[in-house]
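Wait, mind explaining this?

_____
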Amino acid sequence: MMLPTHAMVGLALAAPLVSIAPEIAPAALVGALAGSVAPDLDLYSGHRRTLHYPTVYTLLAAPAVVAAAVVTLPATVAIAAFLLGATVHCRMDRYGGGLELRPWEGTSERAVYDHVRGRWRRPKRWIRYDGSPGDLTLLAGLSLPLLVVLDGSFRIVAVAALAVGVAYVALRRRLASLAPVVFGYAPEALSRYVPNRYRR
């Protein structure tokens, strides 16, 4: 799934605290948002493997959530929310398409790497691919309620995520054709950082 969708899932996880415990809601929202986007920082360095830990994040998130419930401080809540956001991100990647430039073709059986089992998990393709109409539907279904529940900077993030998501979905297939051309002009020093899926 696309990054804006992951971001909105993170905010949606923490959003109930806005009414339940407003004093810790900002920490939870920041933590969940950061955790839900952090795994994709590996986009150009072993994507869905380097920073994606579907099992490890789960094992860390469970005690962190308990600790935050027992010792409810902004720091403990933010850490728990971060780990929960990262956990859900890695799990969600398995429900989308494979790790390939044109995931609508369904040629890749690599969704996310499981470091504990030492193997790639297969994509389930419930959301056919990142930037698909289904992905946009999920993004809209999450972000529109958040526009009502959240305010300030978090509302701006939700608006930006929806805008970026709409643009990405509109351009997704064209970008797949354009990427090999653009990255073909990468200087030799940078070409080793270009993922294989972006090469012709």
In short: Residues 95 and 124 are 5 Å apart (CA to CA).
